[in-house]
Write a structure and sequence with these properties.
Blueprint: H1 2-19, E1 35-36, E2 49-50, H2 54-67, H3 72-83, H4 90-93, E3 95-96, E4 99-100, E5 106-107, H5 126-134, H6 164-167, H7 171-178, E6 179-180, E7 211-217, E8 223-226, E9 233-237, E10 242-247, E11 266-267, E12 280-285, H8 289-292, E13 294-302, E14 312-313, H9 323-326, E15 338-346, E16 366-372, E17 380-385, E18 392-396, E19 418-422, H10 430-436, E20 460-463, E21 467-473, E22 481-486, E23 504-509, E24 521-522, E25 525-526, E26 549-552, H11 553-556, E27 565-570, E28 583-587, E29 593-598, E30 606-611, E31 613-615, E32 637-642, E33 648-652, E34 655-659, H12 670-674, H13 685-690, H14 694-710
Family: Belongs to the PQQ oxidoreductase GdhB family.
Region (Disordered): 143-166
GO cellular component, one term: plasma membrane
Length: 711
Amino acid sequence: MKGVLISINFIFCCFLLFLDSSTSLPLCVDSSAPFILNSTLEFCPYNGSTCCNSTEDAQIQKQFQLMNISDTTCASALKSILCARCDPYSAELFTVQSTPRSVPLLCNSTIASNSSQSKAVAVEDFCSQVWESCQSVSIKNSPFSPSLQGQAGRTPSKSNPSKLTDQWQSKTDFCTAFGGSSTSESVCFEGEPVALKNTDSEAPINPPHGLCLEKIGNGSYLNMVAHPDGTNRAFFSNQKGQVWLATIPADGSGGQLQLDESSPFVDLTDMVYSDAKLGMMGMAFHPKFAENGRFFASFTCDKDKWSGCNGICSCNSNVNCDPSKIGTGSSGVQPCQYQAVVAEYTANGTASQPSSAVSAKPTEVRRIFTMGLPSNTENGGQILFGPDDGYLYFMMGDGSGTGDPYNFAQNKKSLLGKIMRLDIDNIPSAAEISKQGLWGSYSIPKDNPFSQDNGSQAEIWALGLKTPWRCSFDSERPSYFFCGDAGQGLGYYGVPKVSNPDLYEEVDLITKGGNYGWRVYEGPYPFTPNESPGGNTSKDSINPIMPILGYNHSEVNKNEGSACIIGGYMYRSNTDPCMYGRYLYADLYSVAVWEATEDPVNSGNFSKSRIPFSCSHDSPIKCDPEPGTSLPAIGYIYSFGEDNNKDVYILTSKGVYRVVRPSRCSYTCSQEKATTEAPSPSTSPSHACRNFSIYQFLQISFFLLLLICFV
């Protein structure tokens, strides 16, 4: 019996590690991104990147003055603590284990050698410093009141002066409540702005020797979504509007993707308008799909061919746009003839339970969103659910052709050039939808950045994007929300377009309320449109967030002179341990695949390297060689996918390719021989446990149980 209890404890401890989530990147308390100041704050000692503007700086100064602290040492400590709200890492400092705090986490011990913070040698215990200098000092409206714990950034209500010794029995009690330590995955406040280690002097982070692929399917798809039930199944969809449910073969089994092209899971082609640039661009399955059977499709429709294509035109008087002045597009297409749609469908009624359904009816359950597009150009269209909040994120391009002449991407009254965040679980009445001026059946999350701004569309989560093409959340750090944003002169979905050959493709790290610059900037470069009937936005009026990664078109294909970025995934599979913890992305032309590494960890600073790729000699489906090169001829890269084991897939015009063990392509990886389950050494022990599959984990637990019981 004792052995059973020990084994249960082991299982429970590792299960807790599965639930652990890693730290976030630089974020402010309200989850928005830090910004660059044009001038220095007058009170708080923050220059450059910060979370406070001059108004907030003045408010902190007033709060400090009202405390009326007589002791200069204590006053200095309290000033630094109040000003920590301006720190670029304030979201992490003021939140510990999802609990908001009234003051930042005060360093209460020497910073550990594995800390991500800059001082890896002996450092004074700042929490003890605060106690020693302030314990007997009267502080009015003290932020250290026990009643304020769990209330981040809140200004204390007016109260009589009090001492720390009036509210806390000892330094131990005080530092238990307000103290903490810095580790490789978290930071604490030591009385000055947080600074991460500069690892330039340390051993360089070498890129993997190559990316090994196996071809498991011949079909061409735009979207792949892992089945929410956690099995080895996934949904694949094409641009025409067909969705298939496929079974993915085990790694190394030699099997192919089990998918019957003649029997789709659902066929939406009657509603979808598809051409070289438009069609079904996204699909998403409700996090509780296995219980409720709800799934969603994002596509374009033609109002001349389908009566259900009946949305409001995005070119309207609210955004200073007149459809009659835009003119017709190619093939005589009228403005807003093509429309962006997000519709809900259900798998209920086709099986005993939704998780076992192998088909669904193409009958629309609910129209989530409809909006007319000003032209027949690329408009993004991906949808996905946030892993932490459960809201639906909808990626929308500027939809207006060359140079965004109407400046939709910067106009907060327009939803073009934006990432939207919608609540599709709380549906308002038809009357309320009309009253709020919504574009369909959804509600606005209360913490959306512009939900209280009458001059902005409340759906907006982020703005200033050209054509977001393939976004993903890091499965281990959901606050890392990556988006590839295609630059000017792009051409994709299999039809390259040659124009503006030297412009930029980028990867952005999306944060709440972030402005990513388009069309004031294209990537890091100032952009000037050829025409601007919709007006311009000045550089000084915005705080753009620059790309974390990117490349010029000419870097990729000097002969054809055009390119389009394909956003990918942070690689979290254990199949290739040398790729673990690196962001993978590619170019449409499939001549370039990059991996990007964050350094220092949690800094939001990435460095990229272009890596070779090849097909394994034992690929289930043979890969054709690319004439004149050593690369396999995989076709145009349309998208990436990820399964429930976190293995990454590349969806191309010639088939479905999976990233497999590097040794299968004769690439060397020192970690591969050590284990095929453990991640790279750069990860923490908690990651090592968390990254086992559930099946592997239960196998090991059962084995240990047997050992303990029979020894």
